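Renewal narrative, Specific Aim 1. Our central claim is that a sequence can be written position by position from structural information alone. The example that follows is taken directly from our test logs and has not been curated for this report. It begins with the C-alpha cells describing the chain, in the order in which they were read.
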C-alpha cells in the first residue's frame, strides 16, 4: 500500500515538474498572430463580387494598376546610361548631319529610361501609326537588351528601327553655259540603233548616267533622243534639262531656281547663266507640287515635318525628324533633303520638292539670303537678298507654258 502511494506521489511530482519547466522555457505572451488566409477560397472573383467587395479580391479590383505604379520607387535621379555613339563612315558624316532610321514597329512606346520599361511604367509617348523617321543619337545596353536614344530622354528598343540608306546621287555644277540639252538616264536601258529600231546591244545605259542630247525625232506619240553614235533613247527613259530664260520678274543677276515637274529636274541660275542642275522628286498626283513663281520665305538648317491634314493614329500620318537644308517657298511647300528614298527623277513626295542630300546642301548654301551656322531658322524679310523659285510643268507634248505671277 505504502509502495503504491509512493509511486503515485512520484508520478505527480514528475508531471508538475514538467509543467514548471515548460512554463519557464515558454516565451512571454505576445499579441495574437494574424490569421492566415486559407489556401482554398470559398468564393470566385467574378466581376460582380469585385465591384461589391473589392477587399476580397485586391489583385483584381479597380485602381490596381494605379496602386501598383504608385508603389514603384525609382531611383532619383535615374542611373546614368553610357550612350555609345553610332559608328559612321567619313562619307556618311559628310553626307548628312545625323544618322536616320525608319520606325518599323507600330505602335511604338517611347521610354524615358529602359529601366522604366522593365518595371512596367507607362511610356512618355507612343507612336501610333503611319510613317515615322527619327534621328538616332546613340545606343545603350540595359540588362542585355540594346536600346537607341532618339531624343534627349527618349529610348526605344533597337529592333524597332531600320537605318536609312540615303542616296549618294548628286547633280552637276556647270562652269559654262551648256550648248546642248542634257539629261540623266532614269532607269537601266539599252539604246536603239535608230528611233524605234533594233537595240544597240553593245551599249548599256545605267541609272543616273549623264548624257547629252544632240537631236530628237518624233515617231507617232513618242519622242526619241540621239545621245551618241547609233544611240537613240525614248523620252520616258531620261529626265531632260534645257537652258531657259529667266521669268520677267527676275532681275539681272538675281538667283533663281527652276523646277520642272514634267522632267523632274531642277536648275539653278544666276541671271541667265545656269550654274547647277540635278534631279528631284516632286509631289505625287494626289499631292502635286503647286506651280507658280515664288520667293523663299524661310530657311532652316533642319526641322521636323508632318502631315498637317491628319493626326497620329491615321494611316496617312507621317512624321520626319530633323529634315536638313530646308527652304520654304510657298506656305508649307519647300525644297529639302530626302534621306528616305533614292527615287529621284520620279514623283514621290507629299508636295515638297525632294532633293538628294548633296544637292540640298549645295542649293541651301548657294541660295540667298545667307544663313549663319548658328542661326537655326531665318525668316526672310522684304529688302533682304532672296532667291526666286519657278515651278512649272513643261511637257514636250504640249505648248510651252509662260511663267505664272506670284500669287
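The sequence written for that structure reads:
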Amino acid at each position: 500500500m505504502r509502495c503504491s502511494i509512493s509511486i503515485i506521489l512520484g508520478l505527480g511530482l514528475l508531471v508538475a515538474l514538467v509543467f514548471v519547466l515548460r512554463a519557464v522555457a515558454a516565451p512571454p505572451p505576445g499579441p495574437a498572430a494574424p490569421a492566415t488566409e486559407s489556401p482554398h477560397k470559398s468564393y470566385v472573383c467574378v466581376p460582380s463580387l469585385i465591384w461589391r467587395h473589392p477587399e476580397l479580391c485586391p489583385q483584381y479590383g479597380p485602381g490596381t494598376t494605379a496602386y501598383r505604379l504608385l508603389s514603384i520607387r525609382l531611383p532619383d535621379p535615374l542611373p546614368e546610361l553610357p550612350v555609345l555613339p553610332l559608328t559612321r563612315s567619313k562619307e556618311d558624316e559628310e553626307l548628312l548631319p545625323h544618322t536616320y532610321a525608319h520606325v518599323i514597329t507600330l505602335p511604338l512606346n517611347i521610354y524615358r529610361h529602359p529601366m522604366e520599361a522593365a518595371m512596367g511604367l507607362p511610356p512618355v509617348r507612343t507612336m501610333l501609326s503611319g510613317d515615322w523617321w527619327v534621328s538616332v543619337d546613340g545606343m545603350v545596353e540595359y540588362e542585355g537588351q540594346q536600346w537607341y536614344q532618339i531624343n534627349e530622354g527618349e529610348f526605344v528598343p533597337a529592333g524597332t528601327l531600320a537605318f536609312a540608306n540615303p542616296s549618294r546621287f548628286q547633280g552637276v555644277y556647270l562652269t559654262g553655259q551648256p550648248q546642248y540639252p542634257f539629261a540623266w538616264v532614269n532607269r537601266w536601258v539599252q539604246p536603239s540603233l535608230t528611233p524605234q529600231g533594233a537595240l544597240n546591244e553593245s551599249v548599256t545605259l545605267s541609272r543616273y548616267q549623264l548624257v547629252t542630247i544632240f537631236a530628237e525625232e518624233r515617231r507617232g506619240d513618242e519622242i526619241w533622243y540621239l545621245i551618241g553614235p547609233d544611240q537613240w533613247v525614248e523620252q520616258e527613259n531620261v529626265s531632260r534639262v534645257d537652258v531657259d530664260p529667266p521669268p520677267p520678274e527676275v532681275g539681272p543677276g538675281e538667283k533663281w531656281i527652276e523646277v520642272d515637274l514634267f522632267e523632274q529636274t531642277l536648275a539653278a541660275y544666276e541671271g541667265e547663266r545656269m550654274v547647277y542642275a540635278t534631279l528631284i522628286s516632286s509631289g505625287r498626283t494626289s499631292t502635286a507640287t503647286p506651280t507658280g513663281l515664288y520667293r523663299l520665305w524661310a530657311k532652316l538648317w533642319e526641322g521636323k515635318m508632318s502631315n498637317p491634314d491628319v493626326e497620329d493614329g491615321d494611316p496617312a500620318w507621317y512624321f520626319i525628324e530633323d529634315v536638313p537644308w530646308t527652304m520654304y517657298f510657298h506656305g508649307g511647300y519647300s525644297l529639302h533633303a530626302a534621306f528616305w528614298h533614292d527615287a529621284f527623277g520620279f514623283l514621290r513626295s507629299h508636295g515638297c520638292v525632294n532633293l538628294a542630300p548633296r544637292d540640298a546642301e549645295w542649293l541651301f548654301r548657294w541660295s540667298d539670303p545667307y544663313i549663319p551656322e548658328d542661326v537655326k531658322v531665318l525668316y526672310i524679310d522684304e529688302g533682304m537678298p532672296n532667291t526666286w523659285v519657278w515651278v512649272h510643268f513643261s511637257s514636250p507634248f504640249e505648248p510651252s507654258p509662260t511663267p505664272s505671277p506670284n500669287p
